[in-house]
Amino acid sequence: MLPESPRWQVPAGQHFLFADFDDGIVMFDVAIGSTHLINRTAAETLTIVERTPGLGAEAIYRALLAQLELDESALPRDAVIQLLWQLEISVLSPRSTDDAYRRPLGQRSA
């Protein structure tokens, strides 16, 4: 049996502000006062997770495709899953009881 897919959320008290510039989007993390230069896909992903906590990766992927008006060939599912885990390192929190999804990608087993 495969482990339960994590549900993603922004940690309590954390909130993001975005400013869109020609060369990227600056995200300000209100809770800790840090800034990050991110692309539109990452900004939209964070907005989806912040607006609708508890979604799984598949639901986030589908919402992201709709928001960006893209089809699956333009934005591969694996790229979004990788993005979620990269964001998890700095700003997101997976909600899962399965420790397999808390390990880095290279250390997970199926």
Commentary on this structure:
With 110 residues, this protein is of the alpha+beta class. 35% of the residues lie in helices and 23% in strands. The protein is built from three helices and six strands; from the N terminus they run ββββαβααβ. Strands 5-1-6 form a three-stranded antiparallel sheet. Strand 3 and strand 4 form a beta hairpin. Helix 1 (40-51) packs across helix 2 and helix 1 crosses helix 3 (77-90).
Could you write a compact summary of the structure shown?
The protein has about 110 residues and is an alpha+beta fold.
Helix content: 25-40%
User: Roughly what fraction of the amino acids lie in strands?
Assistant: 15-25%
What is the global morphology? globular
Global Rg: 14 Å
- Uncertain spans, ≥5 residues at pLDDT below 50? 96-110
Secondary structure class reads alpha+beta
Note the gap between the termini. 9 Å
What is the H-and-E element order?
A: EEEEHEHHE
Strand order of the largest sheet: 5-1-6
Mean of residue pLDDT values: 82
Largest sheet: 3 strands, antiparallel
Please tally the helical runs, counting DSSP H or I stretches of 4 or more residues.
Answer: 3
Strand segment count: 6
Tags for this model:
110 residues, alpha+beta, 6 strands
List the helices and strands and how they pair.
Blueprint lengths: L6 E3 L6 E6 L2 E6 L4 E5 L1 H12 L3 E2 H12 L8 H14 L2 E3 L15
Helix pairs in contact: 1-2, 1-3, 2-3
